[in-house]
Amino acid sequence: MVKKKIKKTLKKWKRYHKISGAGKITRRYFVMNAFDGALTMLGVVIGAYIAGTLNSIIIISAGLAGSIAMGISGISGAYMTEKAERKKKFKEIKKAMLSDMKDSVHEKSHRFATIFAAIVDGVSPAMAAMIVISPFFISNYGIILPETAFYICIILTMVVLMLLGIYLAKISDESMIIYGIQMLIVGIVTAFLCVVTSILLGGQIHI
C-alpha cells in the first residue's frame, strides 16, 4: 500500500516537473550554487591556512554555519523569486485560457516547480561545501593531520569543479575536457586570489 502510494506520488511529481519545465531552471540553480558553495569553502580553508589557524573544529564550525546560511538563503531566495515568476506566468495562462484554473494540473505544477527549485537552490551549495570540507571531519578524529586535510580539501574542490564542468558539457553537448578545464582554471584563480589577499592582510604560507 505504502509502496503503491509512493510510486503514485513520484509519477505525479514527474508529470508536474515536465509540465512546469522545472528541469532547465533547477539545472542552472544546481550548477551555480554548487559552484558557489565549493569556492566559498575553498576561500575559508585557504584563509584559515594562511592565517595559521588550520584547526579542524574551527573549519567544520565555519563550514556548517556557512552551509546553513547558504541553504536558508538559497531556499528562501529561490522560493520567493520563483513564486513571483510562476504567479506571473500562471496569470498569463489563465488570461489566455479565459479560465480560473484553480487546483488545475497547471497550478499544481507551478507550485511544485517553485518548491523543487527552492530545495535545489538551497541544498546544492550546502552539499558542495560539505564535500569540500569533509577531510576536516576525518581530521577532527585524529585519523589525518589538519595539513593533510587541507591538501585533500584543495583536491576535492578541483574535482567538484571539474565534475560540474563535465555536467555542463553534457547538457550543452560540448567538449567535457574543455568545460572541465575551464572550471578548473576558475578554481585555481580563486585559490591564488585567496592566497594573495590573505598574505596582504598579514598571513603567511606555512611549509
Architecture blueprint of SSEs:
Elements: H1 2-20, H2 22-50, H3 56-97, H4 105-140, H5 146-172, H6 176-200
Helix pairs in contact: 1-4, 2-3, 2-4, 2-5, 2-6, 3-4, 4-5, 5-6
Which descriptors would you attach to this protein?
elongated; 6 helices; 207 residues; mainly alpha
Can you walk through the features of this model?
The chain has one domain (25-45, 67-198). The protein is 86% helix and 0% strand. It is built from six helices and no strands. The chain starts with a helix and ends in a 7-residue tail after the last helix. The protein has helices spanning 2-20, 22-50, 56-97, 105-140, 146-172, 176-200. The mean pLDDT is 81. It is mainly alpha-helical.
Query: What is the N-to-C succession of helices and strands?
Result: HHHHHH
Instruction: Report the C-alpha radius of gyration, rounded.
Output: 21 Å
Q: What percentage of amino acids are in beta strands?
A: under 5%
Low-confidence residue ranges: none
Instruction: Name the overall outline.
Output: elongated
Our measurement of the CA-to-CA distance between the termini, rounded to an integer number of angstroms, reads: 61 Å
Largest sheet: none
Summed over residues and divided by their number, the pLDDT gives a mean of 81
Put simply, the count of helices is 6
Number of strands: 0
| Helix vs. strand class | mainly alpha
Helix content: over 70%
Total domain modules: 1
In short:
Helices cover 86% and strands 0% of the residues. By secondary structure, it is mainly alpha-helical.
